[in-house]
Design brief:
CATH superfamily of the largest domain: Response regulator
Shape: elongated
Strand content: 15-25%
Oligomer: single chain
CATH topology of the largest domain: Rossmann fold
CATH architecture of the largest domain: 3-Layer(aba) Sandwich
CATH class of the largest domain: Alpha Beta
Number of strands: 12
Length: about 325
């Protein structure tokens, strides 16, 4: 008990006597100090006293599907900073080999009496049900799976495909392919639907669609297959997939962009320094992350937003991985 008092007091910057008063429910402590002590207990892994367990902590879970894709750390950094400015303590939860699953993270966050959770990706029906039953505020950021009832913040996938397609057709490309993530991944499904609509409207050329795992190797493998269809341009569902496509083209003796134009998606770190620098759709990370935090804070403060989706428009960033169709292809 003494060790707990010392650690919590040091964490908050108050006296051990103050911590003791909070733990014993005594008066004479400001609300802000009381909340800081309770949050420190949660962060340090101590159980709250029984009489205080019903008090919601000012912890907010940031649940990420992975850290290999630079877009997820970027989202977490902005969202985490915005949460701190509002007086919350962000808790980063990410899946890793041999680590906790998202379901286990949800259980842990519920045990810690979190104020809310932001999911970058998705959550299972069981996780969704558990959070709703406990009344925990939730916001989905670029949800991987459709979940009714939770506010969502997403990049407009239809607009992204339309911008990329218009850019490539303006360069004379008609044999354009699309490579996205798994078929059950909501943003990928939306991109594929938008691409199919554009292909039907064009009524010319080749428009194959490939589904890949979101990895460099997955992009390389599926791009290799798509290249057999004779495409001269490829729109990709992430920058990682796009870099895999560049490798696939080079393995077949093709050059980017002279033989194959490639468009990525995210504009994650260092895409301006790849060879060639990648043309890509930039996700508005700052605006999206702050919108997600605002929606969550509104719920926590008792203002329940309409559970609709906020769509943010991406920006086409043209670099050197796209060029006119080779030999006037399709003209």
């Amino acid at each position: 008990m003494v060790r707990k008092l010392v650690q919590v007091a040091q964490k908050v910057g108050v006296s051990e006597a103050t911590v003791s008063r909070v733990l014993n429910g005594k008066p004479g402590v400001s609300d802000s100090t009381r909340q800081a002590v309770l949050t420190a207990l949660d962060v340090l892994g101590y159980e709250r006293p029984t009489q205080l367990r019903g008090v919601r902590a000012r912890l907010v879970g940031l649940v990420l599907p992975e850290l290999q894709n630079p877009i997820f750390p970027a989202l977490a950094e902005v969202a985490g900073g915005a949460l701190v400015q509002l007086g919350f303590t962000p808790v980063l939860c990410t899946r890793s080999a041999g680590g906790l699953t998202e379901a286990e993270y949800v259980t842990m966050l519920l045990d810690q009496q979190v104020s809310g959770v932001i999911f970058c990706g998705g959550l299972t029906p069981d996780e969704s049900r558990a959070l709703k039953e406990r009344g925990v505020p939730v916001v989905l950021l670029n949800a991987a799976v459709d979940h009714g009832g939770f506010p969502q913040v997403s990049t407009d996938d239809v607009a992204a495909v339309q911008q990329a397609y218009a850019h490539l057709t303006s360069l004379g490309h008609t044999r354009i392919g699309l490579m996205v993530g798994p078929a059950d991944h909501t943003p990928s499904r939306r991109k594929a639907a938008a691409f199919t609509t554009l292909a039907r409207q064009s009524a010319t050329g080749t428009h194959p669609i490939g589904h890949a795992l979101f990895s460099f190797e997955g992009g390389q493998a599926v791009a290799t297959e798509l290249l057999t269809t004779g495409i001269t341009a490829l729109i990709c569902g992430s920058d990682i997939l796009a870099l895999g496509a560049v490798r696939a083209a080079r393995r077949q003796g093709l050059t980017v962009p002279h033989d194959l134009s490639v468009v990525g998606y995210d504009d994650s770190a260092f895409m301006n320094y790849t060879d060639p620098p990648l043309t890509t759709l930039r996700q508005p990370i700052e605006a999206m992350s702050r919108a997600a935090v605002t929606l969550l804070a509104n719920q926590i403060n008792g203002t329940n937003p309409t559970p609709k989706e906020l769509l943010h428009e991406p920006e086409l960033v043209v670099r050197h991985s796209t060029a006119p169709a080779p030999g006037g292809a399709g003209l």
